Structures are given as structure tokens and as C-alpha cells.
Description:
This protein is 22% helix and 27% strand. By secondary structure, the protein is α/β, with parallel strands linked by helices.
Amino acid sequence: MAGRMVLGSAALTDLVRPASASDPAGVQRVLPVLPELTGLLPNRGLRRGSTVSVAAGQPRRSGGTSLMLALLAEASRAGSWCAVVGVPAFGAVAAAEAGIALDRLALVPHPGPEWPTVVAALIDGVDVVVAAVPATVSASVASRLAARARQRGSVLVPYGRWAGADVTLQVVRGTWEGIGPGRGRLRRREVTVSARGRGAAARPKEITVWLPGDGRTRVVPRSATGRPTAPAVAPRRGPLTLVGSA
């Protein structure tokens, strides 16, 4: 599949294992996340059929993109297909450094007015679908997409404001590290991530983790000394699948 451009949902279905399909070992009902994020989710992972939104914040560089990458990394490494819709700034380098397998990543940077159709098609064939939420999306469209994810066994991850999500994650505080008096460079930041939702996620939770800077997105926990542990070496970049046209 290296370098293959996928145009339309029919072609995508031929290339990607449907999210609801069983494998010989049975369907994995909860997709894994990084250990540092398990405490934020009621099933300690991404439950198939659920909607887990990531608040983008204002501006969008508030940490939401790094959190979104960290949320996808473990499921991707475990073999799941992921898709990102409507995030033109989403880069292959950052995704690879986060641990996302590029040969199982589909990007639709500019879905245009067909956003609901594109997201619905990806839900039919991809395990985890991240979708930047346009301001024009109605509550009825959001409800239909969430219902489709439940039916298909995909995980829908709206990136932006989304009412009715099972869990909403948001970076609420952050402090950069690396700048000294008049010198230095931003290296990483300590962020506090909140989780709120409904049902089993109704009780608000917060955790504090390190998100490295310099384009790295791997969540780095504190060590026993209180200092951040060194980020793991980024994996090599692989092929990228582009869905649709820019």
C-alpha cells in the first residue's frame, strides 16, 4: 500500500479491514492507549463504538493536537487503522514520532462540504477516526455519526466542540520548559489533562504528564525524581495513505 492514493469510500473498504470485522482471536473491544492516559478513560482504553472528543482549545495550539496524537499512538502500534479528517497541519513527521504507523494512517486534510459523508465512510472502514469539527455541523449530523460509530464498532474522536461525547479530554493547563533568562529553546511542556463525560465517565478526572516539544508528541511521565524521563527514539517514517483530494 506504500504511496497508494485512495479515492472514495469504496476503494477504502477494499484496502482497510472493516472496523467491525472479527479476526481469528475475536474483536478487541477496547483499543489500547498509552499507560499514562488509561486513568482518564472509563475502560482504560478506547472502547469500540464510543465517542471520545478532544477539545481543540483557542488557539488550536493549546495542546489539543499533541494530546490527540498521544491518544492514537498505542492503538496504531497495536495494529489499528487510524484516520484524521480536516486537520491540514497534521504532519507525517509528528505522527511517526508519536508512534503512529503511517502505513495504517489515512489523511483527509480538506474534506470540504462533504465532511459528514467522508467521516461516515471512514467510520465504516477504520478503527479510530479523528475529525476536526466544522462550526457548521448540526446536532443531528453529530448524533448520526456517533450512532454510526456505535453500530460499526469504530471509535469516533471529534477534535473540537462536540456535545454528547462519552468522554471529553482537554488540556487545561500547561507550562513550557527549556527557556532560560534570554536564551534557550522550548523543549517540552508539563500539561494537565482533564476528562469529563457521562455514565462511567461522569466523575471529572485530571492527570499531569509531560508532552515533549520540538514536534515530538509522546507522553512522557515524571520519573521518581520528579524529572521528565527522556523521550524514546522516534521510529522511522513509513508510507502515507492520502484519502480524497486537497
